[in-house]
Amino acid sequence: MRSLGTIPNRGDAVERLLKKLGKPGELRVCYEAGPTGYALYWQLTSMGIACEVIAPLLAPTKPGDRVKTDPRDAERSARSYQSGDLTVVWVPDAKHEALRDLVRARGGAKEDSKRAKHRLGKYLLRYAQRPASGSRAWTAPWWQWLRKLELPHPEQNTTLLELILEQRGIVFTSAPHLIHRHADGVEEWMAFFDDLEGRTLAVMCQVSPDDG
Q1: What percent of the chain is helix, strand and coil (3-state, nearest 5)?
Q2: What is the pLDDT of residue 49?
Q3: Which of 1, 122, 188, 207 qualifies as a cystine partner to 180, CB 3.0-4.6 A?
Q4: What angle do CA 161, 164, 165 make, to 5 degrees?
């Protein structure tokens, strides 16, 4: 067993190394499933190299062996792969993985929307703000009330606007920053965000010294 060192996680670097090791039909490769996905698997199989992706949590380990480094992990995986002790995971094709990406993205978006709703609802609750009509939250009448709502301080209204935009899926691309201070001490603040069509817009507010 010998180590060939560390190479960058790039397709050209992988290809150069494997060509040095032998003919594609003579090689067998494995690697641990992880954040890099299956791009390496697809590359190797397209080159005619036998490749399997293994489940890292099911790999055999020695009691008390908690030291993890890339060289040690690689050597341990190679030995276990040679002896047939590793558990192979199912690898989707590129189209199937694209569908899984879409499902994960939509699930993540729903979770983000849910968290944004909680933040907006808690902010209104903290200032005892609720519509006089008693309309249910997130309904059309409730949104009409919220758009007309004005809190006592400019900073509160800026925060409210940020939370509303976030719940609508619009996230600020820069933190609020001071752009001008007038002679009477009034400050003008600005923050940028992108709308749903990718256009950069800005929101501004004035802060009086008396508001501090």
Answers
A1: 45, 15, 40
A2: 95
A3: 188
A4: 85
The token duo for 68 is 């993890």
Q: What's residue 45's pLDDT?
A: 94
Q: How far apart are CA 51 and CA 38, in angstroms?
A: 11
Amino acid identity, position 52: E
Cα–Cα nearest to 203, from 124, 194, 112, 151: 194
Residue with tokens 């979770």: 111
Return the pLDDT at 212.
54
Dihedrals φ, ψ of 110, to 5°? -65, -40
List the chain residues with pLDDT less than 50: none
The answer to whether residues 73 and 94 touch, using CB atoms and an 8 Å cutoff, is: no
Residue 131 CA to residue 134 CA, distance in Å, equals: 5
Q: How far apart are CA 101 and CA 37, in angstroms?
A: 11
For 67, the token pair is 């030291």
Q: How far apart are CA 206 and CA 186, in angstroms?
A: 7
Interhelix angle 154-167/94-126, nearest 10 degrees: 150
Which residue has tokens 């940028």? Answer: 192
Global pTM?
0.63
Cα(191)–Cα(166) distance, rounded to whole angstroms? Answer: 13
Scan for tokens 């791009």, then name that residue.
39
